Amino acid sequence: MRPVLSRIKKISALLFGLDDILKQHKAKVRKRGAALLTLERSQHTISRKNIPQTALRTLYRLRDAGFKAYLVGGCVRDLLLGKAPKDFDVSTNARPEQVHRLFPNSRIIGRRFKIVHVVYGQEIIEVTTFRNDDKSAIQSREGMLVRDNSYGNSIEDDSNRRDFTINAIYYDIDDFSLLDFHGGVYDLNRGIIDIIGDPDTRYQEDPVRMIRAIRFKAKLGFKIAKRTEEPLSRLAPLLLNISNARMFDEVNKLFLTGHGLQSYRELKRYKFLELLFPGQKGIIGTADFDRFIEYALASSDQRTLQQKRNKPHFLYTVFLWPKIERLVAKRKAKLGHELSPQQRHEVINQACDQALGDQHSVTAVPMAIAGDIKKLIQTAILITDPDLEARQTEEIAQQPSFRAAFDIIKLRAKFEPELIPFVKFWQHYYDEAQERFNLAKLEREERRAARMEKRRQRREKSERRRSRQELTAEGQACMERPTAAQEQFNDDDAAARQERLARARAWRASMNLDP
Ligand code: ATP
Ligand code: MG
What we know:
alpha+beta; Beta Polymerase, domain 2; cca-adding enzyme, domain 2; 3 domains; 12 strands; globular; binds adenosine-5'-triphosphate; binds magnesium ion
């Protein structure tokens, strides 16, 4: 909390002298709904030095082609707060197809909202076309926007469609000024999250905005404005109308990006937890559950600080663990006799399936992650089995799920002292496994670097060959060519494949799924 507050003070200092202007502007916005405030380059702190070349290049190319181009959203907000933005979003009056034509390294994605991804290696700049503030958007019976591809030419209309005032500040590449239609700079200065427009309507249009409000509160240490906060608990059930695939992504953003513990506390406060984890009735709110989750999320946040990745299967294992443990105990009691290792394996798998089945109604946990959760729980239960035979220990310590299982037991041992002997026993195996992991990682990186080098050499070779061929190309001009239709088919096919691959790659990276 404290570092954010001190940063806010810093912005105030940098924007010193603007207090009155910002205040008057906010008053105007309250009266009229929207009003433009322009802050010249000398009046704000965003420097091109802090914007990556990839984003600048995208902005400049759009501008040079005669379009308007702005940075907008979390990147402007975070740059003003002195934080490193997670990603850079561009807003333009160019239509998606026009953007796509300008950037060979781009693709159009999205069904609900068509956007363009401009791809620079691992980095993606998201380019969205101005939205229109009109009624042609298709709404469901609950007032939710189902499809909304009506484009506009006005930046003001676009700003009305954004979620919170602090996310609707535009950085203009033309003269490096900031454009603010909703008093976002004023709210940023005061640490306030306020929704644009009527809160009920905006949450009904897209209930995910409620989770976003809570996420930004947790992430930035801000307050939610009263009017923006009031409907949260009342409208929370609308979240059940959101697709479980989208919810899976949102839940990961809440818990895996460095502010998981604070997100958890805020979700609890607004009574969203039971909604997000519906199979946990009677468990959420108990002291044991609370302690376990708090320790686990604090440790995940610590990992983010150390630039280590947090994976979703660990998160879901932690949240579903108490329920699975109860289910396992219940099934064991029902069977009423000592279980063979095979039977125990089956009982745990069945309990995992039931817990994951309950969870699926809210978040679609992908099959591969569900598999990892089961392996992790099997191992975590095995390493606290007092009857484990000595010959099995080496085998268990070699399993990929062993380190995470040990982490879980270690967390639980903080409040379950009977687990301490198990932690002591396995610590040595854990250290060895960690060493093996580090070594394997190094080897993987070496192999990857070698592969890249080979690829580079192959590319160079083929370029040399191509330029040689081009020299003789004119002599072969009469050679039979594929028909135009065939060429089009090949192009479309390859482009679609490329797009699928790149989308999968981007999604895996954003969800921390890469090995
Ligand atoms: P961060 O990237 O740090 O999580 P962000 O605000 O940039 O935060 P994105 O999901 O990258 O979040 O969205 C970029 C911008 O798009 C937002 O700042 C906001 O202006 C707009 N936006 C995103 N989601 C919504 C939504 N559900 N409703 C309205 N506007 C949205
Ligand atoms: Mg963003």
